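Predict structure. Chain length: 673.
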Amino acid sequence: MAWVRLDRAAEEKVVMFEATAQQKIEMLRVMYLVRHFDARVVELFQEGLVRGATHVYLGEEAVAAAACAAIEGEDYITSTHRGHGHVIAKGADVNLMMAELLGKETGYCRGRGGSMHIADLGIGILGANGIVGGGIPQASGAGLSCRLLYPGRVCLCFFGDGACNQGSFHESANMAAAWKLPVVFICENNGFAVTTPMAKSTAVEDLALRAAGYGMPGETVDGNDALAVYDAVRRAVERARAAEGPTFVECKTYRWEGHYLGDPQVYRTKEEVALWKTREPIHRLVRHLVSEGLLSAEDAEAMDVSAKEAIDEAERFARESPSPDPAAVTEDVYYPAEVAEASPLIPPTDREITYAEALNEAMAEEMERDGSVVLMGEDIGFHGGAFQITKGLYFRFGEDRVRDTPLSEAAIAGAAVGACLTGLRPVAEIMYIDFSTIAMDQIINQAAKIRYMFGGKARLPVVFRTQCGGGLGGGPHHSQSLEAFYYHIPGLKVAIPSTPADAKGLLKTAIRDDNPVVFIEYKRLYHSSGPVPEGDYCIPFGVADVKREGTDVTVVATSAIVPEALAAAEELAADGVSVEVVDPRTLFPLDMDTIVESVVKTNRCVVAHEAIVRGGVGGEIAAGVSERAFDYLDAPIVRLGSVPVPMPYSVPLEAVVIPKAADIVRAVREVLA
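Prediction complete.
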């Protein structure tokens, strides 16, 4: 492992990669541009034109400029909330950046993202990020795409010192090292995690020491020395390109402004800031270039002036650009992808297989059809998954495409996001929906929001498969029904199939969709059997299925409660009661038209799901029926759900918690009374 400590004499450091004269001059140009951009941002913030939490890069310019000089145009970067320097160094257009900061339609993200969300996927900028450490798992996903689709490419992952204490960092560093992904983790250690000095939040002085715990080299360099940063990052990049895995590069630097603009900065002294300004990186590089005869002082001054003029033009462009049209506020939440061959009608067949086998068949067919489809999750490879849903796929498609992951839900979900942004179509399994709470940031703050906050410039073809529900003795941590969490989030689609045929057709649609899909499977259904056509068919999202026609009462049921509703309908039929059972199949998009049409016919409605009633999707369905079919209702809508307790382990307790056919029978009789 290579180690460079700040306390070592400069002459002891062997420079393995000396930047060329042209590279050094380009670094200086970038540093001037970053300096003037963020200095102008400070002014515009004070003027009230730049809004919200704004984090500038002043004083840290050497890291971004030198690191990006060490890679090629086709390589990727992930960034942070303090990302202006990173994206400028990677080639972002300062006009579009400034327009975005002023919330204009011409901005990179059409004014949807702002300062913390600049992205340009066309030049490898996978987005700055408002969540501390949010981009780290995505870098691993981009590294996976580099390995499988673009051998030789690398991803630079920028983050601050505070992110080193995030679980997402540890999970992702471990995954990248275990998989030997071409990722360079670049920690910009500016001494403070928001306002807390690093000495009070981290036990080690050099954060690069942590790299050893993941089996990767770690190196600490002076982040205000552009040439030292270039040397370290270039060595890490060469190692990554040679398929030797990731490297951790810690760059010790200092931010001149507070954590955010407006920060009172009571946690540090003016003398400390002034001292660090004497070590500032631009003058340091200028002195080197002049001493080497590569640039004159006049040339450097002219470069400084040129950078300021470029920012003057960026400000003019931004001020004169139009603001977004409020009528367009709902655009770009979802990619308008359609599966052309999808049909709500399942082809007739005599073949019966289980729900689990149908899911397996769907993934196998999609992997055969599209080489960019990859599976990732805990124990899904050789073992075939906790419920054997991926059994045999590892041997059929190989370990590159059916990937056993570490036990790291945040890393799994985040890597899937990064992978889908860079060319793969990942299907990421979260073993239990209970565990998806650990991955909430990547699913809700990242996958669901990226398309919108990047101004519609991203597709996110990712499926998060997960299992839920009780009845199998899983207890409180393995049995929850949390679909309402994901239903509530704009940007996600949610599928919740109840039959083997629906499971296959909906999963194939989900994999082909260019939007993030949360695909929820109820464990009790895995061994249920039903007719499933062989070969290719897809079921469109947003089309409910009438599982049983009736005239007296509509029962809207989801997933594992659908069989209970059908059993209840059969029992009630013996008493002359005709029950229509409607299965939404997907929660978003939700087919309210079919539900309302049924209620208009029957004049009564019961909504049943396994999740508790409070805050459940049933409340939304009931509200929709009330809004659109109130005049047709002959009785109040009844909602059914589990008893509002954590799912118990004991058999008799679990039995009374989950709604059964008998509960639905009682509810139907109630609305008929």
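Summary: Residues 21-47 form the longest helix (27 residues).
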